[in-house]
Amino acid sequence: MEKVLLYFAIKYDGNWDKVYEALDKKEKIALEELQNIEDKITCQYLTILSSQYPAGLKTIYKPPFVIFYEGNIDLLKYSQKIIAITGSHYPNVYIKKVANDMVQQLVNHQKILMTSFNAGVEILVHQLIKENSISGNSVVIINDSNNYDANQQELLLYLKRYHLVISEYPLHMTRENISPIDSNVQRILLGLSKALLVLPFADEKIIHSLVDSAFNENKDVFAVPNQIYENFATNNLIKNSAKLVQTIDYLGA
């Protein structure tokens, strides 16, 4: 049955609704295609039937039938240590300093850092670990491993080798017309993490969407305040129920 799930995940490019419909209608599969389906991927995978499938994903809306990955999948066993992080796509000097301090503190407290792979802070988190040789663990959730520039591809290769990269979509297969606000990535990010840490940001729609989803999922949302003269949105989150963070101790570490 796991190969059946893999077959439909590949055929329908990770589209949950189409995979569900194929299963519901008992869509036919040629035996030869099913037997050779694993030859179509170069990464590893878990299905919802796998013993290693993360428990946190089973409780989210539309749990992925298959997750594709490269790296240390055992990191997902430690859900209470996983902190999701987001922040500005255009970090200034202050935000970069905040990110550096928070990453170092979280790693010192043996937290596992998880982000999507959008621009700015979410990539910076993993660059800090790589460039400063910080001995922490990180996880990236992506929507397309082929849709990044050369520097990002190099960083992804590092993460695949020493950390963990996962996706609901088959890795190494190019996808088209990807929405910049990928709700699939967001729901997995929140399903796998204990809490969401928001670093200072302006008014990026994708971050508001993630924060709203976190509140709806009853996740703890923590926010680092921005400087008083900056026109950033983080302080508004704090006014609207996000928990103020000044040091890692505020995360209950």
Kindly describe this structure.
With 253 residues, the chain is α/β, with parallel strands linked by helices. The protein folds into two domains: 2-71, no CATH class; 74-251, Rossmann fold (3-Layer(aba) Sandwich), CATH 3.40.50. Helices cover 38% and strands 15% of the residues. It contains ten helices and nine strands. The chain has helices at residues 2-11, 16-24, 31-35, 55-58, 93-108, 121-131, 150-162, 183-192, 205-216, 234-239, and strands at 44-47, 66-71, 82-86, 112-116, 137-141, 164-167, 195-198, 220-223, 243-244. A nine-stranded mixed beta sheet has the order 1-2-6-5-4-3-7-8-9, with helices on both faces. α5 (93-108) packs across α6 (121-131). The longest helix is centred in the middle third of the chain and has 16 residues, at 93-108. It is globular and about 65 Å long. The chain starts with a helix and ends in a 9-residue tail after the last strand. The model is unreliable at 177-181 (pLDDT under 50).
